Amino acid sequence: MSGIKTPGGNAAFHNFVNDFAHISDPNERRRLALEKIDNAPFGWYHVRAIIVAGIGFFTDAYDIFAINIVVTMLGYVYFHNSGSKLPTNSDTALKVATSGGTVVGQLFFGWLADVIGRKRIYGIELIIIIVGTLGQALSGPSQAIDIIGVLTFWRVIMGIGIGGDYPLSSIITSEFATTKWRGAIMGAVFANQGWGQLAAAIVALCTTAGFKNTLKAANTAAMCANNCQTAIDQMWRITIGFGAVPACIALYYRLTIPETPRYTFDVARELEKGAADIQTYISGAYGNAPSEEIKALRDAEAHPVELDVPKASWKDFWGHFSQWKYGSILIGTAGSWLLLDIAFYGLGLNNSTILAAIGYAGQPNVYTNIYNVCVGNLILICAGGIPGYWFSVATLDIIGRRTLQIAGFFILTILFCIIGFAYHKISGHGLLALYVLSQLFLNWGPNTTTFIIPGECYPTRYRSTAHGISAASGKIGAIIAQTAIAPLRTRGCPGGTCWLNHVMEIFALFMLIGFLISFLVPETKRETLEHICERLHDETNIARRNTESSEERKSDGEGKVAQV
Known about the structure:
The chain contains 25 helices and no strands.
């Protein structure tokens, strides 16, 4: 039975009833609806999704990069009597706190998005990021606790929000993206990390320039007092607090997105709602489809047919991933991300050496020192980081995710071996070139692909959970790099970096293992998510079966008419 067409509808509020009311079989309606979103041409709604989903990664990278500059400022303000430099333990605590909170957020929000849906919690993680960021900017010491303790607390809170953004933004983008350019769309979301790093350096540079006259008078750290300390105290708060601005702008759009149709179809099992939500997304409107439109679709269904999709449960989850052919994929995505992040965060250990090579080493004058830190890091970002992200965007759907990841790990193994074994023979400019190449192939390779592949290669009912597990493994790698490996660079020479060459050799070994484990990762280039799940997880090919069943029903109907 077909539904009665209703009047109305425009470019902003599409008439969902007229598109789907004539389909009586819900399975067929599901197939046609997903086909529409998979084959949709690249449009402004994809650009909107990239911006809204990418804000979290912008904020993530902004904060991680900004704290590297802020610790220099904190030294002048709160550790004036200790050489104006943060103690090593305090420096490490501030940087690791975010990673620790991120692990919690990735696991918790990843699981929660599969249990109650993507829409219900998308935006909550951004609120947590905003609260954590503002909490840092407004922090101050007291008699009971010092500034480092307060900042560490707020950075853990912010990290939980950042962690939640990883699985949510990945799978929401994946489940809404057109098949042909899904890799580029997801890559563009992740590439906002590069813009976040760039923004952090620019904001810090602008605040430094704004207080130039006050800072310039302090020719040494010991001379930075009163007005100088007040100026730097304002500078680091502005630098940190600005990270909440883009998050506030994107908050409304996150809170009003529709539920992803694939979750609605396959997990929540609301056929009509999922079909209508697709139209909401493509039409450019926000929020879920109006209830009266969904009711009209349900009223048009004369003979309900049960949707045949496996149901999610803990028993099914453990039963599924305990089998090697499925569990090996999770080992591949989680293991490669862990190994990648060890080197990604560890590569920053070379920053002081690299900055010295390009003439931006630390200076006694307070203004010149902070200025050099900002400009030097700005140069490093533009030289290798940002180009690498966008080279990935351009090639993911052509070369393929798996190929880029394997090639990236292989090239990084070679580069880290050269840096490690020839460290004392390479000039400063040679080391700079190797550093830029390493940043380029980190981002034009495994740093991007380890984010994208887990968002594509798992069944809808466990996609968020599995992505959260993979992402959390990566942050555990970051913690290992910051707490276990970083201290090795000063082994035998406290305050120096005499063991840094051996640390780079260790990273080369991790890259080699990452190269090998990447062969467990599947290729997902230009396949629909349903076809990927069928190929990798033996999921029922619902689309094909429903097409066949629809054709059989049509043939039966034509046969009966012929008999009459």
